[in-house]
From TrEMBL:
The lineage of its organism: Eukaryota, Metazoa, Ecdysozoa, Arthropoda, Hexapoda. It comes from the Eukaryota. GO terms for cellular component: mitochondrial intermembrane space. Keywords: Repeat. The keyword Cell cycle does not apply. PANTHER family: CYTOCHROME C OXIDASE ASSEMBLY FACTOR 7. This is Uncharacterized protein. Belongs to the hcp beta-lactamase family. InterPro entries: HcpB-like, Sel1-like, TPR-like_helical_dom_sf.
Length: 248
């Protein structure tokens, strides 16, 4: 029997039955994809983050479902649905997800390794972190491409390297040396994958001739792309707000 999705009663029945189907598919049929959908259902519909976290964790540990590894890692990172925020636990599950070729997991594992936040309990490892970001970028994660490009634009100092004010820093103090050609490569990839900041940086690179031959026409092209992305993001926010008013 088809549901009338304009009927509030039918919609509620549909959502309830969907939850029943996901539970059966996960607990009885042990289908990892359905288990992940159950986690999403518990998160988005029931707002039961503790149960969602347990489903994601089990689906990662028992069935090696990469998206669930990422989700439980994110929950641990934020302290959502778990007893407390735990960076080491987050890292563990991001690593599991990355080993299963989930680009979002590789991105976050890499970011934890390149972070200067000493309070998170993760020992910095710039080169390993960068290799993970490169893996995520290769797997078409736009944010990873953007972060790598930024590392090449500014360079990354070795941990614990301290200098006095106005003191020049030698190249041997850098774990990752500035390299505008590499920065251009990853900026271009990030822009092509839809990262607005990469497109804005790409426009500046062409305008200045940083890492690529100066080209004002291409500078304007990528500036226009970035502005169009910004406009689209703004209109989406406006649309969502308007929908919220209509449904209130």
């Amino acid at each position: 029997m088809p549901y009338n999705l304009k009927s509030e009663t039918d919609v509620k029945e549909y959502i309830t039955n969907l939850g029943i189907e996901y539970r059966f598919g996960c607990y009885s049929e042990k289908n990892p994809e359905v288990c992940h959908l159950l986690g999403d259902y518990l998160e988005a519909i029931d707002k039961d983050f503790q149960k969602a976290a347990r489903v994601y964790q089990t689906n990662c540990d028992d069935y090696k479902y990469p998206k669930s590894c990422y989700k439980y890692g994110a929950y641990s990172l934020l302290g959502k649905g778990v007893k407390k925020q735990d960076y080491k636990e987050a890292y563990k599950y991001f690593e599991k997800g990355c080993n299963l070729n989930n680009p979002e997991s590789c991105l976050h594992q890499g970011l934890l390794l390149v972070s200067n936040n000493s309070s998170n309990g993760i020992s910095p490892n710039i080169l390993k972190g960068m290799s993970l970001l490169e893996k995520a970028c290769t797997e078409k994660n736009a944010n990873a491409c953007y972060y790598i490009s930024g590392m090449y634009i500014s360079g990354v100092r070795k941990p614990n390297v301290k200098t006095k004010a106005n003191e020049e820093v030698g190249e041997d103090s850098y774990e990752v040396k500035k390299d505008m050609k590499q920065a251009y490569k990853y900026t271009l990839e990030g822009c092509n994958l839809g990262n607005i900041y990469s497109c804005a940086n790409l426009s500046q690179m062409y305008a200045r001739g940083d890492g690529v031959e100066k080209n004002q026409e291409l500078a304007e092209k990528y500036k226009k792309i970035a502005l169009e992305m910004q406009e689209e993001m703004t209109s989406q926010k406006t649309l969502t707000f308007g929908q919220g008013l209509e449904n209130s």
